[in-house]
Design brief:
The protein is an alpha+beta fold. 21% of the residues lie in helices and 20% in strands. It is elongated, with a radius of gyration of 32 Å.
């Protein structure tokens, strides 16, 4: 025989006026339905606020850490040339360098020349001999790849093609314009790219027309 006994709350009681009042006003044992709903709602709101705060911090972090969306110093000509987009070909060959932290392809407008001190607010690079291009295809945002056979940029998603300086080939692919450019400057031989300042690329140019650099070979990479 066990030695347990009913607690007062478990004992049966006559439903007198005092007992009924106690049942109406007394706190129930354990967690009530109202408390459960309040705590569940509070936890849900807290989780949502945590996600919003984390997303905001992730969005702002590149700016706080001098990444994309801020001014990024990429280095001098030798440093930039040491980060080729494709192994085996470099800036001096007419191929781009690539910097993932700035989401930027860097090209020498004239591969026979180096960086020239100056500024290019519109990203064209006439004063610097540099063009810094956003890695994003203007069509739907895929990343174009530089093809080492024809020396054109080719978007693997929908086939848009650009010459080595980012000018869109009119007949090839659906992109509405050339690759967008970043404002940049060269001071003391060091290239700095402002990834918060983007100039939209120019309108497409038809094959064979001035303003388009011909492909080095008839075959591409896609």
């Amino acid at each position: 025989m066990g030695n347990w006994k009913l607690t007062r709350a478990q004992e049966s009681r006559a439903l007198t006026r005092e007992v009924l009042d106690e049942m109406r006003t007394g706190r129930p044992a354990g967690l009530s339905r109202r408390q459960l709903l309040r705590r569940t709602l509070g936890a849900g709101v807290g989780l949502w606020l945590l996600e919003v705060g984390g997303g905001t911090l992730a969005f702002l972090w590149p700016n706080l850490s001098s990444g994309f969306g801020a001014t990024v110093a990429l280095g001098n000509l030798d440093t930039v040339a040491a980060s080729p987009a494709n192994q085996g070909i470099s800036l001096r060959d007419g191929a781009p360098a690539y910097f993932s932290e700035a989401r930027t392809f860097v090209q020498l407008i004239d591969p026979n020349l180096g960086f020239t001190d100056g500024a290019s607010p519109d990203g064209m690079g006439a004063a610097t001999n540099v063009r810094a291009m956003y890695q994003r295809c203007p069509h739907l945002g895929c990343k174009p790849n530089f093809c080492d056979s024809n020396y054109w940029f080719e978007c693997p998603c929908h086939g848009s093609r650009y010459d080595r300086l980012g000018t869109k080939i009119q007949e090839l692919g659906p992109a509405p314009r050339g690759m967008d450019r970043f404002a940049h400057s060269v001071a003391g031989g060091v290239l700095t790219v402002d990834t918060s300042s983007i100039t939209l690329g120019p309108l497409p140019v038809a094959l064979g027309q001035p303003g388009l650099i011909p492909a080095r070979s008839p075959s591409g990479c896609i």
